[in-house]
Amino acid sequence: MATALLDTLSRKSRDLTAGVTTRAARRFEVSLAMQPQDSMLPARASWGLLIGLSIVVISGTESATAHLSGARAEGAWVATIVFLVACLLVYLRSTTGAVLVCGLSASALEALTPGNTAYVAVITAVVFAALRLDPRAGRTVALVTTLAFVLASAQGAKHLPPSQIISLLPGLAFAYLAAAAIRRLRVEQRRTESLLQEVLAGRDASIRAAALEQRAHFAREMHDVLAHTLSALSIQLEGLGMLAEQQPDNPTVVSGVQRAGRLAQEGLAEARRAVSSLRGEDLPGPQALPKLAADFERDTSITCRVSIEPAFERFPADAGLAVYRTAQEALTNVHKHSSSSEVEIRLCSRDRGTELTVENWGEPRPSAIKSGQFGLAGMRERAELLGGTLQAGPTAQGFLVRLWIPQ
């Protein structure tokens, strides 16, 4: 049950991190793919500017057509209406065609009326091209609008000389460059906001994954402690119960009860050490293997030999805890699932890493294969968290557990 909980927590941690990161990346891509068509101003202010522009253009057309009659006056009003409708379409939904119609109708107004209203309309069309379209389409529409305006100024009602037409071009160029700069600022703002959302989402995912990993670590520790101590205590009490029924006056019963009490005290101490390990305090490591072997031999009457290289006097805390818990779980499995009379623990350096082997000699019990899988899963996960491997399987004489952790 503990190992199943452990696997569930780890899987939820990975799924949570991957899911949140994927959603953040998707939002980031969609944000960059969107064209910056929204207004820099609140909706009420944007509508106010649009209404103000309409009033200026209509007033200018009315003043210019007061001295005109016939087809030119009607054409000027048609160009004005087309320009204003195109501006409304650009505001509601920016399209290349709507912006182009804006520029061409403004140029037509320049060709038909003698006033300055058309110049304001042309500037508006150039700003729309730079601000509402992508850069390539915006440059094309702005260039077409400028050429149409130059042609209308030279051949239309004003018949402006080349020098005066040239003097009007810097204003159009400035309007386009300023609007393009604002557009780039908007794109950078969107990118910054998307990156910030991604960072915040990643931070939240990391916090939740860390919490799940902490719970998984606690489950792993408590499983190892309880599996080792309570299994020994259960076997001890079972033997004492049978002995008490057959020989109630046997002094072995008293010593067995004392041994069971000692196992309970050791289990409590192990649980306290497990809680301390979550705080980074008092982590057992290779230095505790001799005592572990001695306690195991005393409680089970199974011979347990230990061989440790001197190089492991100083050992990383996480790796040392993995070595100790793996040896502890392996000894528990030997006691529960085999008829071995001899166990050997070896700790040495091999293949640029640390290798722990726990080998026993004896026949396995029938229930060993199924019930021993939980402990093996926990040992294997400890190894994988440190970038190592764990191999466990039967040998010709018994069973072998081999843990390898990189240095």
Quick take:
The chain is of the alpha+beta class and 407 residues long. The protein is built from 12 helices and 5 strands. The two termini are 32 Å apart.
Descriptive account of the structure:
This protein is of the alpha+beta class and 407 residues long. α3 packs antiparallel against α4 (96-112), α4 runs parallel beside α6 and α7 runs antiparallel to α8. The protein has a five-stranded mixed β-sheet with strand order 1-2-3-5-4. It starts with a helix and ends with a strand. The chain has helices spanning 2-33, 43-64, 71-92, 96-112, 117-132, 135-155, 162-246, 251-278, 289-300, 317-337, 368-371, 373-385, and strands at 303-308, 342-349, 353-361, 389-394, 398-406. The longest helix has 85 residues, at 162-246. It is built from twelve helices and five strands.
Main sheet: strands, sense, barrel: 5 strands, mixed
Write down the secondary-structure element order: HHHHHHHHHEHEEHHEE
For the record, give the distance between the C-alpha atoms at the N and C termini, rounded to a whole number.
Answer: 32 Å
Low-pLDDT parts are: 1-6, 20-40
Give the amount of beta strand, in percent. 5-15%
